[in-house]
Amino acid sequence: MTTILSSAGQPVLSLPERWQSQLKQQLNTGENVLAVLEVDLDSRLRFVNGVLVLTDQGLISCPAGENRWQRTGFRDGLTLSHHDHAGVGHLQLTDQNGLLESWRFTLGNNLHAIRLLDQFKEQLHSFLTREPVKAKEQNTCPSCKAVMEADEEECPVCTKVVHTPPSTWTLFRLWRFARPYRLPLFIGFTLMLLGTAAHMIPRYLTKPLTDEVLIPYQNHESVDPQLVGLYIGGLLGSAVLAWLLSWGKTYILALVSERIGADLRTTTYEHLLRLSLEYFGGKRTGDLMSRLGSESDRICVYLSLHLLDFLTDVLMFVMTAVALLQINTKLALVTLMPLPLIAWAIHLVRDKLRTGFEKIDRVWGEVTNVLSDTIPGIRVVKAFAQEKREADRFREANRHNLAVNDKLNKVWSLFSPTVSFLTDLGVLVVWAFGIWQVAHDEITVGALVASVAFISNFYGRIDSMSRIVSVTQKSASAAKRIFDILDHVSSVPDPQNPKKIDAIKGEIELREVGFRYGNRAVNRGINLKIQPGEMIGLVGHSGSGKSTLVNLICRFYDVAEGAILLDGNDIRSYAVSDYRRNIGLVLQEPFLFFGTIAENIAYGKPDATREEIMAAARAAHAHEFILRLPQGYDSMVGERGQGLSGGERQRISIARALLIDPKILIMDEATSSVDSQTEKEIQKALDNLVQGRTTIAIAHRLSTLHKADRLVVLDRGQVVEVGGHDELMEKQGAYFELYNAQARNAALAGDE
């Protein structure tokens, strides 16, 4: 790969050597390359290689799949236009005489194409007006070498997700969930402080026991039995007190941590439900389930066990250091000698653990994603005999998970024994220095024994505190993945001061509506007005933007351009939930929840009476088959309604829509996946459903839209025709061709 430089000497795009060498031969003396676009589709949309180059003198290109270069210099009337549709980008070069050249490319190169177009317009304007192009301050993306504007913080060409390692400080954000439990946390911390002090008492008693009891007794001196009893009683009492305080603080803080974990899960789930469909479109079910389940559990365990132990260790560490300084300052200073080495080792390994555990979480998400794909789709797996393939997928994901864990364990397996060795070495140094002090009568034997007892506890706590680095980084990674959800702002937000919806008429108006999926345009410049109670049929080829338009009207997504009005008010001025309560939705693939028939019908109106549920079922022509089920309306349906046929599931979804009595009805291919007889039954139910409602229907079979007041024909995301069936057939336009093509296909199918 070689990098082509712009006139400013900055990299524009890396190109293979074959383009670099050929391009140099095409350039005139002093000609500067401004932008380069790799063209990877030919006119038949086959994957082939080509290139389009913008210079300060014009355009140079080698068409896809060809081995010839052509040049077009700047001149009056020259126009370069861009559009994209259905995953294909398209640049067209025209002048007064018509089309000169066109280039097609996959949308991975779309942003490069847009930038080339912008620079083309600037250069053409400069050529026509003789005004030089104003130089812009630019940066270069370190990853893809694309030119960035100075005010751009991120490179728009790079679409890779950058996984930033989690910071330990992320754990402090959990305080928002701990704040309601400040009083029990304070009580638990107080008990922890008192319990730690109680644990220190036996070590304090070691010195007088040694100097006043054991050594005099060894030297055959008399020992006061009451003094011995007092010390033994102190040891027993401190042990009982430490046990009671430890039990109290563990119980209280465990209760608090469980409640923090429960609040965290609930808040995350509620926030997840408020996010738009755009967010879920880029996420895997297994990954989200892992975040809500195992990640929140990990945080809960950390708060209830590991953090508690860490705080206890810190208190014990501080109290032990104070006690050592009181006993003998020199011995205390010798005790602290290994601390810098231990602190350096902890700092060194923390960064590796931080990135490692974040990677482990992502890899584990791959494992759960395989499960979440395979288990719901087990019928498809078995139908196509792909058990081995799915087993291989799981084995590969599991192997990747194992490899990442092994790599991290190499670091951790070296770190933990190293800290243990340094602490053991520290105790050895203290023994040696302490014996030297005893030999020189600087301390008593009892003081040395007490100091060693404190020091062993001191280094033991350091070892324990170092081990918590692992679980802390795991919990920080878990907290980051949860806060990634909580920090995500819905692309379909509620207004700050939403308008109230009282009684709506059902008039819908689309004004210059446009929408893009990422960098792919789907709908453009749509204008349409639907009267209250009118039935509109949306027709067009697959990919023409019908379902996207319905999603915009339902406000599953917000328009990128223009506005959608309900009774004259922008739908973005209403609260999302209030607006959607007025919309009934019947999908091509109805989704039923695990539960009873009655619960599924009443999903949109949980407080509905049994009479209302049955009335909706009758209107949906579902009452008869429901009564034939073993428990009637109380019959359980399997997950996703697997216990029912497709037509039965569809009629239940129609009953569900009827029960909420919406003013606006959306039907997305409601009868496309059933047989003709079932379609007739569903059509009867739909006839009841559409009465008195503003209805927008998408139908694969155009014959099912015979009752529509108007048909709206979409092509490449734009409205090309509007009118009744007869009117559109007379025009012999897009609808005429679509209808005849479908009729021919039906005739061929009938002949077979």
TrEMBL record:
Q: Keywords of this protein's UniProt record, alphabetized?
A: ATP-binding, Cell membrane, Membrane, Nucleotide-binding, Transmembrane, Transmembrane helix
UniProt topology in membrane: Multi-pass membrane protein
In which compartments does the protein localize? Cell membrane
Q: InterPro entries per the record?
A: AAA+_ATPase, ABC1_TM_dom, ABC1_TM_sf, ABC_transporter-like_ATP-bd, ABC_transporter-like_CS, P-loop_NTPase, Type_1_exporter
Keyword ATP-binding carried by entry: yes
Query: Membrane spanning segments where?
Result: 183-205, 225-245, 299-325, 331-349, 414-437, 443-460
The segment(s) forming the ABC transmembrane type-1 domain are 186-474
What is the protein's given name?
ABC transporter
